[in-house]
Amino acid sequence: VGRRVQAERQRQRPGRQRRAGAASQALHIMNAQVIQLEDGWNKLKTGGVLKIEEILEDASGGVYKHRISTDEYSQLYTTVYTMCTQKPPNNWSEPLYNNYCEAVIDYLTARILPRIKEKHDEAMLRELVRRWENHKTIIRFLSHVFKYLDRFYVKRLSLPELAEVGSQKFLEIVFNAVKREVRTAILELVRRERECEQVDKQLIKSVIDIFVEMGGSRASLETYATDFEEMLLSTTADYYSRESAKWAGNDSFPEYMRKAEDRLKQEQDRVANYLHSSTEEKLLKVCEEQLLQNPEQQLLEKEHSGCEKLLLDNKTEDLSRMFRLFSRIPTGLPPIANIVRKHITDVGLALVKKQSVNAEGDLMPYVQELLDIHDKYTELVGSGPEKGCFQGHNIFHKAMKEAFEVFVNKDIGKSATAELLSNFCDNLLKKSGERLSDEALEDKLEKVVRLFGYLFDKSTFSQFYRNQLAKRLLLAPSEVDSAERSMIAKLKLRGGSQFTHDMEGMMTDMRLSQDIQSAFAEHVKDKELGTDLSVQVLTTKFWPQYKSDELKLPKEMLQCVEAFKAFYDSHTKHRRLQWVHSLGSATVVGKFTPSGKSKEHDLLVSTYQACILLLFNEADSMTFSDIQGHLNLPAEELKRYVLSLCVGKYKILTKDPAGREVAPTDTLSYNATFSDRQQRIKVRRIAAEMTQEEKDAALKQAELERKH
């Protein structure tokens, strides 16, 4: 047949060659004998239609026993050409078209349909495929033989082309007669494959292709969709409804999900192997409805293996599979997010309840546990595709946020979480606190700020943090580092620029104080003060409000203070210095004689402690009442500082009588025998800890800020 097509193409000359041969061809027709309809059609039917049918009928395994020669094909084509170009009444174009259609109908009705209908199941499918392939071959051959009819008569009258007639007649006569049986047979093969039986996938694909090709030259999928796909989807829904009910009753939730995931993959492969690609979305939707959407609540709430149990046991692989599966359906994730929210809330409230029993103890481990819980569920939720069980999906970030907001805002005894978070930061950032690498410190501060984001009462955190930042800056001014700036930047990102305005002002004051200190040092370098003085000048509105005192400074300190005041007044106008001694510090050289040997220690103390110690340059002993008279400090406050020097690790003074109670008549004495292995000693500073009075003031200020 291929050679016949080639021969026909060679005879068709384009352009001028065709026109140049027109005259000789016309002369040939005038001299040729007129072909009558019956004679011509008999020749075409016998040598063309019937012969090609017999050749294909006798073919075995793609091998043809007989062939139509080039000469035979040429004679057939010429016969058609002649019959279509003869002048009326011998122009047989219309009868030839009608005879062609009738021959196709007779062939399909008498030869093809009976052969298909006499077989069943797979044998019927194979026969259908073979007959359809033969039919297409016959139609292609006849379309070439009758091509002249197609090109002129059919085109002029806008009739269906011969190839289209062949396909349409197969649809009407053969396909419509057997399509129900064919569909049933295919669906049975699909069912068997779902039951893990081996089936002929190529056969199924070939039959499916026939359903598609029955859509005609416009490639319409209407026939495929109506006559096959609808029933496929219906039977698939029924099949997986039964499977789902069986699995849900017998299997654990993880086992069910593994089976469902495997089946969904199989259905995708099924489309790739033999179904039309347009079916994939619809088929998977049906499977997802039956396997996931309909039984979702039952599966999630399974008593010993449901979603809650997976969360409790941290089954990350199963949780990841759960997300992958249920994210496929529109309503799949909200029920899971609700369970996740409740689970995290329960875990957090249990921690709060446990810690509330020990509300008076050290609460920093509680904050660390909050951070650990947050780490765990942050990792579970994930930060993006392929990261975490829930791949950073917004619905789970929202669930986690809502859960943490419930228990992070619960107080532990009298302490609000806002206060505890601030204390935790203080422990990290104080130089006497936990020692961490820069990377570890940065990471931990970032985690604290994430918890800070869940606080409803951020103003309370602000007040506590500001008070503690002030003490860190003032008690270790030379050690202000990037960690403090980094933390403020993180808080600014979460709370806004107004939230950190005062903190940034404090940092600016510390930087400007260094410049002022350098200028002051230059100013007094030629003067004999006897004592080195370092001053931080603070802007009142940025810093916490500190209680002023009427401390009487020893002469060694007073001389320095007056020198700085004179310097500052000469450089500024309209600014008044108010001294806050409670946050000051000093290094005092103490001379002792343990075992009769002279020994010196550098004592790192607060300004108040330094004032007390300097009094003992004038006398070896004095009463508490005498000390108060010299310094003019409130009795209760002075007691704390006196005790810090005579009770505890470093007994620089002695008290008579001994004990933690201090009476006005108690005698404090210089301890000449004091000694320690360390030459440089840091004495505990009472003022470094937040007093209850300061705590109450911070809470009061936070309340005022909330009102505004």
Task: Kindly summarize this structure in a few lines.
With 708 residues, the chain is mostly helical.
What does this structure look like?
- The structure is a single chain.
- This protein is mainly α and 708 residues long.
- Helices cover 65% and strands 4% of the residues.
- The strands form two sheets. It has a three-stranded mixed beta sheet. A three-stranded antiparallel beta sheet has the order 3-5-4.
- Strand 1 and strand 2 form a beta hairpin.
- It starts with a helix and ends with a helix.
- The N terminus is likely disordered.
Describe the protein's topology.
Elements: H1 2-11, H2 15-20, H3 22-31, H4 37-58, H5 70-85, H6 93-117, H7 121-145, H8 147-157, H9 162-194, H10 201-213, H11 222-250, H12 253-273, H13 279-293, H14 296-300, H15 307-312, H16 316-326, H17 333-356, H18 364-381, H19 394-408, H20 417-429, H21 438-452, H22 458-475, H23 482-495, H24 501-524, H25 555-571, E1 585-592, E2 599-606, H26 607-615, E3 621-623, H27 624-631, H28 635-646, E4 653-656, E5 667-670, E6 680-682, H29 692-707
Parallel strand pairs: 2-6
Antiparallel strand pairs: 1-2, 3-5, 4-5
